[in-house]
Design goal:
Length: 105
């Protein structure tokens, strides 16, 4: 029931940055993970939209700059999506994976 906020904290629990991953009216929750997926020295923040939205995945820099967005599945309702990161094809680069319990999956 809350806004889809991402807040970043340092090890001393000081808030470094924060932003909305989706529009403020969306209240279906978000799933969040992080990983370095572009070979720079920093992790990216990977966010999946919760129930009530198409299975949308967005990738952000830690300052909230959106660098990528895509739909994980097409032709299904709005079950939302959970996100993870793993090197699926063993090429040394982490791949974003999404999974959902929506109908037809």
């Amino acid at each position: 029931g809350r806004e889809p906020m991402v807040d970043i904290y340092d090890y001393a629990f000081n808030r470094i940055s924060g932003w909305r991953a989706f529009e403020s009216a969306f209240r279906g929750g978000i799933d969040v993970t992080s990983a370095n997926i572009d070979a720079d020295p920093y992790d990216e923040i990977i966010v999946g939209a919760g129930a009530g939205k198409e299975p949308t995945i967005r990738v952000f820099k830690k300052d909230g700059t959106k660098i990528s967005e895509f739909k994980a599945y097409s032709g299904i309702s709005k079950p939302g999506i959970q996100v993870g990161v793993v090197d699926v094809d063993f090429d040394g680069v982490k791949d974003i994976i999404g999974f959902s319990e929506g109908p037809g999956l």
